[in-house]
Specification:
The protein is an all-alpha fold. Helices cover about 55% and strands about 0% of the residues. The longest helix has 27 residues.
């Protein structure tokens, strides 16, 4: 039996498609077409939980304007007011508000359901927290790159070591 090579026609000869069918193996060209999967329209469950949580905890969770002013003041204090995109700030604010609302609901109703499963607010809260952290890390990267005050804070431990001669 030849083992193959670089020459055209070299190698193991191809098996006849009729023999493949007799062995029970499907051929690539005449195989039965797979049925197309049905279209599935999923509901966005997170928005429902978020809206329910915001209705229940509107007194405990700060409004979006308060959170937006807080982060914009933080960015402006570092001299990076024009560098951070408004959409990034909006994403951060909405994700933070969603996280705070889910955490407030977790405090109200608990983290476990009657069937000893995690509450849907735990799952939603962790998703909001992860998204919020991503947005905040992006904001901090921009601040670190373009900040007007690049001075490093004093480290008392390092100062003590340099005074001792290390």
């Amino acid at each position: 039996m030849p083992s193959g090579g670089y020459r055209p026609g070299a190698g193991r000869p191809r098996k006849n498609p009729i023999d493949k069918k007799l062995e029970g193996k499907a051929t690539g060209t005449n195989s039965v077409s797979q049925p197309k999967p049905k279209k599935f329209y999923s509901k966005n469950v997170m928005t429902e939980y978020f809206s329910m949580a915001m209705k229940e905890c509107e007194k405990e969770v700060p409004s979006a304007e308060v959170l937006r002013n807080e982060i914009e003041e933080f960015i402006a204090a570092r001299g990076c007011g024009g560098y951070v995109a408004p959409q990034t700030i909006t994403d951060y604010v909405l994700n933070r508000q969603g996280f705070l609302a889910c955490e407030a609901m977790n405090r109200k109703i608990g983290r476990m359901t009657k069937e000893l499963k995690l509450s849907p607010y735990v799952t939603a809260g962790s998703a909001y927290y992860k998204a919020m952290q991503g947005d905040f890390n992006l904001i901090m990267q921009i601040i670190n790159r373009y900040s007007s005050n690049q001075t490093e804070e004093k480290n008392a431990f390092l100062e003590l070591l340099t005074n001792r001669g290390f």
